[in-house]
Each structure stands twice: as structure tokens, then as C-alpha cells.
Amino acid sequence: MNQRPEGIDLAARSRARRRALQAIYAWQMSGSTMNAVIDQFRHEQDMEVADLEYFEDLLRGVEQNVEVLDEALTPYIDRDVGQIDPIERAALRIAAYELKFRPDVPYRVVINEAIEVTKRFGADHGHSYVNGVLDKLAGQLRNTEKRG
User: Fold this and answer.
1) Do residues 122 and 53 make contact, with C-beta atoms less than 8 angstroms apart?
2) Averaged pLDDT for residues 99-127
3) What is the pLDDT of residues 35-90, one digit of tens each?
4) Domain coordinates of the chain in residue numbers?
């Protein structure tokens, strides 16, 4: 199994991020409460194969910090956050949350995971945009880690 020494199942974390992207997308598009989105995903998605605790942390973290996250992204995007493709916006918000509030996750992992989910669910070249924005954001938020 793909685990880190601390016992974190990396494959389950990747699945949690994929589900989180779908859930954040649904939250952005529907205007539903995050609790309603989480309940819907618990019932409709195959959540036992994902890290449910991490999934919920990502969703609640994005919801509670969306203004801070969007503000952090703003210097590195070429348009208003609301004009970014909803899949790319969800990926950027999740990654921005991880970069800012989850220092236990290496910045390279955050960026790679965001690129992979955007490749899977987003537009053809959306992953390139996400990569460019997150690389610059990581330089600001994880400067010490990035230099090391």
C-alpha cells in the first residue's frame, strides 16, 4: 500500500482530493451549504476508499477561508476569481488551502495533485494554468520550503 511513515495512505488522500474537487465544484455551482454538499457526497460517492477526514477538512477549510484563499490567489491570476473555469477555481482553492493551512503536506505534492485532478476533470490546458498560478503562490506561502 502507498503509505508514508506516519501511516497516511497517499492513495486515499488522492481520492479525497478528487472527491473534494467534485464537491467544491458542486458547492460553487449550486449555492448549497457545505454541510448539504458533504451529506450528498457521503450518500452518493464511494467514500470508503477515500480519506474521509481529509476530504471534510479540505471542504470545510475552503468554505471557512474562501475569501483569504481568493485574496492569496489574486496576484497570480489574470482575471477575477469568479471568471476562472469552475473546475480550475475549485482546484486552485483546494491547493491554496493546503499551501496556506496544511504545512504537513509538501508543496510539490499539493501542486502535483492539483495538476492531476485538473487534467482529469478540467479543460484541455487547464492544468497548465493551475500549475503556473500555484507555482507562484507556493513561492509566496512556502518560500522557505521551496528554496530548501
Assistant:
1) no
2) 96
3) 999 988 877 766 666 788 999 999 999 999 999 999 999 999 999 999 999 999 99
4) 10-147
Cβ-count burial 77-103 (b if 16+ within 10 Å, e if not): beeebeebeebbbbbbbbbbbbbbbbe
The CATH class, in words, for 10-147 is mainly alpha
| pLDDT at res. 7 | 67
Give the span between the Cα atoms of 58 and 41, in whole angstroms. 14
What's the CA gap between 53 and 121, in Å, rounded?
A: 22
Instruction: Quote the pLDDT of residue 145.
Output: 74
Residue (of 4, 60, 14) closest to 35 by Cα position:
60
Contact 9, 105 (CB under 8 A): no
